[in-house]
Amino acid sequence: MRILLVHPNFPSQLRSIAAVLGSNPAHEVCFLTTAVAGEMPGIRKIIYQRKREPSPHTHHYIRPFEDTILHGQAAYEVMLAEKQKGFIPDLIFGHAGWGPTLFMKDLFPRTPLALNFEWYYHSHGTDCDFDPSEPVTADDEARIRIKNACLLSELASADVGLCPTRFQYDQYPPHLRQRLIISHEGIDTNFFMPDPELKLVLPEKNLDLSGCKEIVTYATRGMEPYRGFPQFIEAAHLLLQKRPNVHIVIAGDDRVAYGKAAPEGTTYKKIMLEKFPLDEERVHFVGSLPYGDYVKLLKCTTAHVYLTRPFVLSWSMLEAMSCEGLVVASDTAPVQEVITNGINGLLVDFFKPDQLAQTLSNVLDRPADFVQMKKKARETVLAKYDLGSCLQQRLAWLSSLLNKR
Predict the structure, then answer these.
(1) Residue 304: beta bridge partners?
(2) How does residue 401 score in pLDDT terms, banded at 50, 70 and 90?
(3) pTM above 0.85, yes or no
(4) Do residues 3 and 90 touch, judged by C-beta distance below 8 A?
(5) What CATH number does the domain located at 2-186+386-404 have?
(6) Architecture of 201-384 per CATH?
(7) Burial (0-12, 13-18, 19+ Cβ within 10 Å), 73
(8) What is the DSSP pairing of strand 283-287 with strand 215-222?
(9) Average pLDDT over every residue of 293-304
(10) Half-sphere exposure of 8 toward its Cβ, with a 13 Å CA cutoff?
(11) Start-end ranges of CATH 3.40.50.2000 in the chain?
């Protein structure tokens, strides 16, 4: 069977399913992507590249849509050449919203197209108007509505689609959900598993906390308001004053992955550290970590902080729970789908750093009181987000699509 996987990044969220499909010699698996680096056994990469960047003269509402069209056009041209050489996939599975799957149904009209739909944008009620200090303008409302243009076109052309969580599924208008199912990518619970004897030592980062009993961790792709970075830094400032022995480890890059960029010439990290100076001897910015070090961080934490606006839930929260980390998280909708306060984690008000600092201090005072909560956290991931069962569900879903064909 010929299978085409599509995502501009490689291997992205498709890593696990690509590994399974690529390991089956009965399949010819190709991965359409812009990423030149990286290989996987059993996967043939097909590289496409946009011919240009979106024009700065394009209306700012549709500049992101123009970018998806440029991705779609380049992907179409590369796959047209593949089609002319005889490659016609029996199944296409990709990620909506980026653009490379935008015209796949036009090129392969008889091939089932299955897409992962991540986020449907709203001006009100979720991420955009969550912070009262950032009111949504009429210009924002129009721009945000147009951000869905690519998704809507892909939803119209896809045979079926999936959303990773109930919260994400619920963002799509009810009349557009008929062909969507809820299916998470899955967490590798055999890799993200507890190890009570492990000590947090990261030689490449010159970090040795093997003798430390109070470790608070925070992991993020970008240090940004969407993931509560400003609130966390303020809470860290308060916590350091309360507890002379606590160490705080912050993993992630000084950039913005989601939401508005910081004012030109600065970053949110610089802004917050100027406002709330932190003890450099006890606060450790370790940057992006390779998976082996990242999982150490989650296994050795006394309390792991996860904050998010009502937006896509990060895998990091589930990975921490899978390691039996005690997660102290924001009391926001995507988190509430997974964590019940006081049962498998602790929830705090996103906008109250003092509450976060006090909750962390309470945990550090009595870590033994939270052993059962940590076990419940892993049980939650095993029951609902285990990679093995999630993969089986997705593979069965794709197989049913082929059978219908």
Answers:
(1) 217, 327
(2) confident
(3) yes
(4) yes
(5) 3.40.50.2000
(6) 3-Layer(aba) Sandwich (3.40)
(7) middle
(8) unpaired
(9) 98
(10) 16
(11) 2-186+386-404, 201-384
Length of the chain measured in residues: 405
Q: In DSSP terms, which residues pair with 240 in a beta bridge? A: none
In whole angstroms, give the CA distance from residue 231 to residue 364: 19
Please state the separation of Cα 96 from the chain's center in Å.
14
Encode pLDDT of 324-354 as tens digits.
Answer: 999 999 999 999 999 999 999 999 999 999 9
What's the CA angle centered on 40, arms 385 and 299, to 5 degrees? Answer: 40
